[in-house]
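LOB domain-containing protein 12, Sesamum radiatum. Tokens?
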Amino acid sequence: MGGAAGNTPCASCKLLRRRCAKDCVFAPHFPSDHPHKFAIVHKVFGASNISKMLQELPLHQRADAVSSLVYEATARARDPVYGCTGAISYLQSQVAQLQMQLALAQAEMLCIQMQQDQQLLPNTLQHLNQNNHMPQFHNFTSYNNNNVICWDSSKKESTYGCDTVS
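Tokens:
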């Protein structure tokens, strides 16, 4: 850490070509072995603004603030117009796209499962009917995915209780 007698100045003081004081607000966050870190933050925000921001924060929040400033400055260097907002928007669109792909995959899995269930249903019903475990069912050779109609001929109503058969 810079600022102490005999040590090298922090990256900020080195870049700004000034003596690093003992109480230098930059020294704990911009060590001399990472000069690029302060250089990019200084280029985007300016040393005076960074100093003001850090001095207004409690000591325990300064490291997080510096980390955020470095992230934002790096994002601004990559994308001068949108900065980290552009990265956030890009990531949000990726999340939305992946959620749509997941929903499509889940729908496809459901369709496959329904097709398999439809293939098993006639055989299961026929087996149960042969063993007299269930009332008489009428198996329609063509039926759609959503409706399988079967009824108890003795009660004249559907198994689901929806339709009466005359």
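The helical segments are 11-16, 35-45, 47-56, 59-78, 83-130.
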